[in-house]
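Because showing beats explaining, we let one protein speak, sequence and backbone structure tokens together, and leave readers to judge.
___
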Amino acid sequence: MSQAEQIKFPTGVCFIPSLGIIKSDNATQELNQSERCILNYLLAHSHRPSTKQALIKAGWPEREVTEASLFQVIRSLRIKLQESKKGEIIETVPRLGYQICHFEVLALGELPHDKKTNKSSRTKRISYSFLAVICVFVIIIVLFKYESSPTLNLQDFHSRQISLDTNEILVVGKDDDVLDDLTSKMNALYQSYNALHSPRILENHRLYIYKNEDIYSIAWCELDDDSTCIKGTDLSYSMRLKDWPTFENYILSNEGELKDTAKIQTDFARQPAAKVFLNYIDDSKIQSKVIHYFISNEPNNAFKYSSISYIANKNSKLHHVLSIKAANYQAIPTDDIPNVMAYIKITPEMFHWAYQPNKTNSLNQSSLALENEKHEQVIYDGRQVAFNHLLYHHNHLSLIFCEKSGLYWVHATNEQDVLFKTAID
């Protein structure tokens, strides 16, 4: 492309190839080397789709990288090009790659070379400089208040699909060593289970397992002939790393399932739009948590929600209120992250403790349920925008991945609910 050209996109954003920058009415952003090379390649080959392999070669000519690196660059470019909806500029071509079709090539405006600057133009520059300082100041305030990062948690993680006979398993972790560990643990548990139980019970299941620095989290459901989760067969468990043997013994003993019909102590009469059931295996007295979501639709596939969390100890099925939260969320579709259907952008508004833990009770201090709630309090109090990920969705049932707390199922009250449907259609 000519050094004197700029590329204007339908969003009003302009790309100046010679400078490697993207300009809009209110911002100028410099692209990194990979972003610059990939965007140039897409523009140069706009007459046909560019394959993922070709884009990887263009973006990292002397390095070997995975498709995850390409997904990250495409996602970053979508944000910088200010796509209001996915595919507005960078179109995804299923099973092939990406393409940019809509843009126009314009001449760069002539830069002033006259060193004689009159008072009027000097005054304008001073005014613009003042406005720029004010804008930077406002941006700093907003960032300080929201600490919103556009980084999506799962981009730093790897996933792998494996099969054990008729069972499908997705393992998720930060690197291949973690995936190898999870694969080994699932193989060992599966072989031990089959050795103890005959005929084989664990068949036609979809399982998800995740590990971070603190916990294992595992979720599963039984599949019907259409590979859809059968209602009522979904379960999830979270545990500290040291408690994996306890979980293994629990599964191998075939003692039953922790999830049951929670007896909620509340005066609220309104039926929640969705429910979450969480099970914990730890040394505390708190073994389960239930969350009720009250949701209202907003424009542009966004939602407002308030939620009430309840906990129960091992000696009682009666659940007591733990906390009350309010936030906005938006489900945004993606095929740029392997095995993820959409990411869920959560903008916190309010957090309130209803539960007063007993500080002298060491068992409460070891509770994963309370630890996760304290982590959420920090996010909500700091107004930090967070991202979760949608791994499965069908009618009434969705599986969510959260980097901190792991995996959990969301049950819509209405079996044809559209909590995340707009993000995957």
